[in-house]
Amino acid sequence: MTASPDWTRPDRPYAIAHRGASAYAPDNTLEAFRIASALGAEIWEVDIRISSDGQIIAFHDKILSDGRKISDTSFAEILAHTTAENRPCPLLRDVVAEAAMLGTGIYADIKDTRATLPVLHMLRDHGITRAILGAFDREAAKLLAEADSPYPRSVLVPLGAEPFAYAQGADVIHLCWEHMDRPQDTLTDALFERAFAQGQRFAIWHEEDPERMAAIRTRPVIGICSDRPELVNQPGRGLRFQTVCHRGANKFAPENTLPALECALAAGFDYIECDLHHTADDEIVIHHDATLERTTNGAGPISDHTLAELRALDAGGWFSPHFAGTPVPTLTEVLNLLHRYDGRAYLELKSAPPAPVWQAVCAAGLQDRVFFWSFDHAKLQALRALAPQANIMARRQDYPTLADTLADLAPQIVEFTLPEGTGDFSAVRAAGASVMLAAMAGDAGTLAQIVAAAPDLANVDHPFALARLVRADG
Q1: SS3 172
Q2: Whether pLDDT at 313 is above 90
Q3: What is d(CA 88, CA 72) in angstroms, rounded to the nearest whole number?
Q4: DSSP type of residue 89
Q5: 137 has a pLDDT exceeding 80
Q6: Is the pLDDT of residue 3 over 60?
Q7: What are the CA-CA distances from residue 411 to residues 11, 24, 424, 432, 433 (Å)?
Q8: What would the pLDDT profile of 160-177 be if each residue is shown by its tens digit?
Q9: What is the DSSP track for 257-290?
Q10: Within a 13 Å sphere around the CA of 39, how many CA atoms are in the beta-carbon half?
Q11: pLDDT value at residue 1
């Protein structure tokens, strides 16, 4: 076995982006790898094959969608085919160069054993220090050992195989056991003790379930693969203030859709912000605009359409082909998402009336985990009359004085913008309300002003960038 470098003993598991952030872009593409780093992944898992003309590529399957084998097809033909499918296959050297530029590690899943030594040389040539080289074929591990590889060698262990026997001689035992009902139960203290005694570490199957992830995140493993790398290290958790993600993680998935909202919650951010409209058949859906044109393939006012008609629309294709077919979500789906991630929500009442919204929140038992606002002041008045205990936000800019702001509707949260300054923050807190600062720009200067203002909540369009700044600032 290779002598383990210090980085192989992390304080917490590394977020290993499974084929890149493949929940947000086509797998094994440069786009997926770049998004993975923006979501906080420290390592990219890359599948490696060789084309018929000897080009080393990042591609998972043995065959293209038209049935041609990768090993029998030239790279030019592979690239043309995958580009037509909106998932252009990159050369591995371009992936490695990108990783070197971003300071990201590489987990090389070598599908074609012929690529083993070229991959080793490529990683060395690009100065990649944090890398794991692995394969299901144990012959690859032997080749790496003979070449005196400085990188830990991994063997991927299929379900049903005895891990220590199957991965004999490997530095990293990668358990590919995601298809078990409760794979987290296999991670016993005895399993780790035996591995550590032999100088070995474990890497874990790709995991996207928050309950299972919570169980394995605390185990002493080198890393966890995930299509959602933000779910592994949760960059939004433990910041100095609570973060409200405006329309969800809208830089990585289409705004106000379940993928964007789930991304924000999976990353550990405190709140998602959603805009609520009512349909022609009196259902409640999530969508920002009053009309459909900007973010769906539909047209006209939302309130002129039934729920069934809205659900048949594509609310994701405008953002990326990867999200084509994403539906307009319902309030019920969002409330279920809050339960799934133990999250919170800022619900903005657009055309949606307060009574059915409050009824749905109460039915879900989430009264204490949401707050409300609306441009239509009459809606907030109706909500306060209906539900004295509801959490309501007020915007400081809507009132002549702070006293007026606090007197009207007895808000639990008062929102400020950066130009309004921080002078009233202490008075808001003294009145028993929380301070929220809204700033949608994502430049470093704006984000630094948010951090310096030290609000109780920050309502932002760039939560991941804000989290990186907070952590870099210590």
Answers
A1: strand
A2: yes
A3: 18
A4: P
A5: no
A6: no
A7: 41, 37, 15, 9, 7
A8: 999 999 988 889 999 999
A9: SHHHHHHHHHTT-SEEEEEEEE-TTS-EEE-SSS
A10: 41
A11: 56
